[in-house]
Every structure is written in structure tokens, then in C-alpha cells.
From TrEMBL:
A Pfam family of this chain: Lipase_GDSL_2
Biased composition (Basic and acidic residues): 243-254
SUPFAM superfamilies: SGNH hydrolase
Transmembrane segments: none
Protein name: Lysophospholipase L1
InterPro entries: GDSL_Rv0518-like, SGNH_hydro, SGNH_hydro_sf
Region (Disordered): 231-254
SGNH hydrolase-type esterase domain residues: 9-182
Source organism: Actinokineospora terrae
Length: 254
């Protein structure tokens, strides 16, 4: 039986659960799945999810960290930074300082902090190899902070399974339902919860003719890449006006 009686998740679309939708049409995602598993063994389990799509680390710190710390949960998960890394003008020194503040604050107010080594995009997204120096610095920071604050780290970066298109939504940015299920299982395994399946098992490849791939690429560019670039150019975010889906540490029933 696990000893966790409460959990708060903070971050961006990865933790909000974008592109994994429950029966009610609302975002579910890996954090909800982790909470559901922990709740099975903890009567009265409480859960909050403050994550909002599109948030930069500065916004996560300003809007979520202190609120999460004030709840004093048993377990708090923090994932963020890729929205910053994707931006050409990313200030890595400022990003690192904010991540340090977040982890220090959360570690002082919770029993266990969970951090993430981000998914490696370089084998899946064209042109993303240029981001590797920034990503490597972010990974190193996570490892250092985990050692300093006795946090646990879910290592997604080292897994090749997320290279598979079968784990991603049509926008190619967010995980789909199966992708979130695998992240949830990886997180539970890191927490010492008995496994229910091998989350790192390769996904079967369905060969696609090149003509179909080209058509799919054009469709993706119009439906997803174009709007994403437009938001970057105009300073808008997909999270503008969005509120957390679970803003308070309330009882959670799977």
C-alpha cells in the first residue's frame, strides 16, 4: 500500500493532459491517471491539478508554485520548460533560476517532489536537434535539483518508445491517450508502485506510403503548425483565458 494521501500537479499542457480526453470531453492525462491509481489505496485521497497549456516556467512559478506549496501535499509533480526551450529568445539562465526556485519551494512544503527528464524530440521533429544544447542543460538541472532535494525523477528522455508517431496526437506536439497512459505508468513505477504493464515496450510501426505521409504533413502544417507559429508571432498562448481544471486539493474518486 502506498503512503500518499494527496497530490498536486503543476506545469503546462503535458500535465494538464492535452489530447487525452475523458468520457466528459475534458482533458484527463497522465497526472489524473497517477492520482486515480494512488487513490485506490488511500481512502480520502485528495488531488489538485493547476497545470495550464502553453505556460512558460515564469508563469508556472508566478501562478502555480506558491499555490501548490500552500496546499502542503504529500506528493507534488513539476514538469515544465519545453515551451521556453522552443522559443528562439529563451534565456536559459533565467529559466534555470526559476526552476531552482520552484523545486526549492515545493520540496520545502511537500513530502515528495517528482521531476521529469523531458521527452527527446530530436528523432521525431525535424529541426529539433538545434534545441539539444538547451534540452541537455535542462536535463542536467533536473538531475542536480533531484539530488539536492531528494526528489524522484521520471526519465522519459532515455526512452526510445516516444519516437513512435503512435503515441502522439495529430498536432504532433501533445501525447495522445496511449502516450499519457505510458507516462502515468512510468511515473508510478518511479514512485515504487507495482507495474501493470511495460510502459517502454515499442509501439508497432504501421508503414505509411510516402504520398500519404506528404498529404499528412501538409494537413498538419495547415491545421497545427501555422496556428502555432501565428500565436508565437503575436505573443498569444493557447492557455490564454484558461483556468486550472482542479484548482483546489479536493477529494478525488477514480
Amino acid at each position: 500500500m502506498n503512503a500518499h494521501t494527496s497530490m498536486v500537479a503543476i506545469g503546462d499542457s503535458f500535465t494538464e493532459g492535452m489530447s487525452d480526453f475523458g468520457p466528459d470531453g475534458e482533458c484527463r492525462g497522465w497526472a489524473d491517471l497517477v492520482a486515480a491509481r494512488l487513490a485506490q489505496d488511500s481512502p480520502g485521497f485528495r488531488y489538485a491539478n493547476l497545470a495550464i497549456r502553453g505556460k512558460l516556467v515564469r508563469q508556472i512559478v508566478d501562478e502555480q508554485v506558491d499555490h501548490a506549496a500552500a496546499m502542503r501535499p504529500d506528493l507534488v509533480t513539476f514538469a515544465g520548460g519545453m515551451n521556453d526551450v522552443l522559443r528562439p529568445a529563451c534565456d536559459m539562465d533565467a529559466l534555470a533560476a526559476r526552476v531552482r526556485y520552484a523545486v526549492r519551494t515545493l520540496a520545502a512544503s511537500s513530502r515528495q517532489v517528482v521531476l521529469f527528464r523531458v521527452i527527446d524530440p530530436t528523432r521525431r521533429m525535424r529541426g529539433s536537434s538545434r534545441l539539444l544544447p538547451r534540452i541537455s542543460r535542462l536535463l542536467s538541472l533536473v538531475d542536480t535539483l533531484a539530488a539536492e532535494h531528494d526528489a524522484v525523477v521520471v526519465d522519459l528522455f532515455s526512452s526510445r518508445v516516444f519516437d513512435s508517431p503512435g503515441l502522439w496526437a495529430p498536432d504532433r506536439i501533445h501525447l495522445n491517450t496511449e502516450g499519457h497512459r505510458r507516462v502515468a505508468e512510468a511515473t508510478l513505477r518511479t514512485l515504487g508502485i507495482a507495474p501493470t504493464f511495460d510502459w517502454d515496450t515499442p509501439v508497432p510501426v504501421d508503414p505509411t506510403p510516402w504520398r500519404d505521409r506528404a498529404t499528412s504533413d501538409l494537413r498538419w502544417a495547415r491545421a497545427h503548425a501555422g496556428p502555432w507559429i501565428a500565436r508565437r508571432l503575436t505573443g498569444r498562448s493557447s492557455g490564454d483565458g484558461q483556468l486550472p481544471k482542479r484548482p483546489e486539493l479536493d477529494p478525488f474518486t477514480p
